[in-house]
Automatic annotation (TrEMBL):
InterPro entries: AA_transpt_TM. Residues 1-12, 26-36 have a biased composition (Polar residues). This is MGC89426 protein. Keywords: Amino-acid transport, Cell membrane, Disulfide bond, Membrane, Transmembrane, Transmembrane helix, Transport. Residues 1-36 are annotated as: Disordered. PANTHER family: AMINO ACID TRANSPORTER (PTHR22950), SODIUM-COUPLED NEUTRAL AMINO ACID TRANSPORTER 6-RELATED (PTHR22950:SF366). Coiled coil: none annotated. Residues 38-207 form the Amino acid transporter transmembrane domain. GO terms for cellular component: plasma membrane. It comes from Xenopus tropicalis (Western clawed frog). Belongs to the amino acid/polyamine transporter 2 family. It is a multi-pass membrane protein. Pfam families: Aa_trans. The chain crosses the membrane at residues 41-62, 69-91, 116-136, 157-178, 184-205.
Length: 230
């Protein structure tokens, strides 16, 4: 399927831009595929996995403690099915319209109000995700540094959450946000994914070395989420 015009008319008269890149179908019938010039498939997978897991992975243990194994597994299955169906609808829409951006899909489906709604949703999601990351850095990074430097006297600057937050934002977050192509984020996404796997393996191994009792587990589960320090 190839769009013949440079724009697509919506039901209410709006036009959606569909250039050469956007008019190319996601799943072509011909075996030859033209490179889009963006990120590679591997880096795209790492970016997607990093976006899916994110900081929400920190609350999974608390959710399991409150819902139980069966309830938690059922909720995970329901969310996974809803996510898979949503992706299916997006891909079908892309194939039918030859549009590959969220805003233009919203414009094609619901007009200008749909495009504005999609843009606001993306903005809220990104701001919320970044705020959660920065909050975790501010609250957890000082405790992690203090565990490696137990003999620190007073309150040094490297144990101040606000100072570490400013340094992280200026030295790490800002340069990554200024990258010319999103494909470069594949390196950091792959690194963060391997760190997640590493810490998950460490927690599973250390679990057998830590004494466990029902009273200590109940007292820990009563602590509000976000205040537990590893």
């Amino acid at each position: 399927m190839q769009a013949s015009d440079s724009s697509i008319n919506t039901l209410d008269g709006h036009q959606v831009s569909a250039g050469r890149d956007e008019s190319t179908p996601l799943l072509a019938n011909s075996p030859q595929r033209r490179s889009s010039g963006g990120t590679s498939f591997g880096f795209a997978v790492f970016n997607l996995m990093n976006a899916i897991m994110g900081s929400g992975i920190l609350g999974l243990s608390y959710a399991m403690a409150k819902t139980g194994i069966l309830g938690f597994s059922a909720l995970l299955l329901i969310v996974a099915l809803l996510a898979a169906y949503s992706i299916h609808l997006l891909l079908r829409m892309c194939l039918l319209t030859a549009v590959t951006s969220y805003e233009d899909l919203g414009l094609y489906a619901f007009g200008r109000s749909g495009k504005v709604l999609v843009a606001c949703t993306i903005l809220i999601q990104n701001v919320g995700a970044m705020s959660s990351y920065l909050f975790i850095i501010k609250s957890e990074l000082p405790a992690a540094i203090a565990s490696f430097l137990p003999g620190a006297q007073g309150e040094p600057w490297y144990l101040d959450g606000r100072t570490l937050l400013i340094i992280t934002s200026v030295c790490i977050v800002l340069p990554l946000a200024l990258l010319p192509k999103i494909g470069f984020l594949g390196y950091t996404s792959s690194l963060s994914f391997f760190f997640m796997v590493y810490f998950a393996v460490v927690i599973v191994i250390k679990k057998w070395n830590i004494p466990w009792s029902s009273s200590s587990a109940k007292s820990y589960c009563n602590i509000p989420p976000g205040t537990q320090h590893l």
